[in-house]
Amino acid sequence: MQPATMNPRTRWIAHLDMDAFYASVELLRYPELAGLPVVIGGGRRHQPVLQPDGSRHFLTLRDYAGRGVATTATYAARDFGVHSGMGLMKAALRAPDAILLPTDFERYRHYSRLFKAAVAEVAPLIEDRGIDEIYIDLTDVPGAQDTLGFDPTGGVRALAQEIRNNVRQATGLSCSIGVTPNKLLAKIASELDKPDGLTVLTAAEIPGRIWPLPVRRINGIGPKAGAKLAQLGLATIGQVAACDRAWLVEHFGRSYGRWLHDAARGLDDRPVATHQEPVSMSRETTFERNLHAVRDRAALGEIFTRLCAQVAGDLQRKGYLGRTIGIKLRYDDFRTVTRDLTLPQPTAEAAAIRHAAGLCLKRVDLARPLRLLGVRAGSLARGDAVTL
Fold it and tell me: Active-site residues: which are they?
């Protein structure tokens, strides 16, 4: 009698992306705005006002004046061409009647913790990629593998649906999930059927579902590489996949050319990293109006000190020390400069960060008005692992 043969173990990696996360969290608080164009961003001045009859008065983009940017927008607002990172004044030209709400990061972090805990109940191997997205390794979760040979995706599809149900039950929010053999494809797949989508792709489906997509859909192909690919006549992922590896290396260099060759074919062996050390921690603010180092010295000094204290608080709360302290300035002409200083010993003290950042500030041109100021701590190490 021949021994029974087992079906090969399939690697299943999921990418979960919350749908319009900040805006969706706000709609839980203001359900009367469901289906309307809503933009989140700017300062704290545009709070909804409760009316005597119990209704709320909301400001619109046409009411806004300042230099704030959109943090996110509902899908209804995106239909007008409004997107995250867009200046609110520009967004007002596209959607003047869109509702404008202030950001509430404490509330968003709360819901972020809720949805990640809901996912962990089903699949504990999670790579945190930010406040609203994660990678999940489903490979060894019971039920993921097709042991009978009937449907290679049926088990993992049911798991992904269970995760989506858990997230909705815990938060009241929807998410989109892409499940594929690796992280690169999962990231693409999670965007294919947004919002509230579930997409499961096998390697065999790459030519039909992935190759017709624009090259920029691959995470890692930015504006410059995308423009160069376009100049070379390569608009889709499939066209890049058809290129010879040596030709891509010739045009994009050894490392990036090889990566392009593999990525376009859907090859990616990166593991789901359940713990990642942060590279840096930073705080920055965009001013409502341009500030000048001389005329607005007191205001700038107060903001600068507060940013340093916030960075110090972040370091202390998460148990890190920073050895490299840096600043970031953006002038009124949108030119951005940075300066760094490496300390002899790492620190998480606000006064030490303020002193080092102040020394960096002396190395930049302060003659022009400023629109943004930021402070950063890099070269991080765990506080309990540092020998002073």
Answer: 133
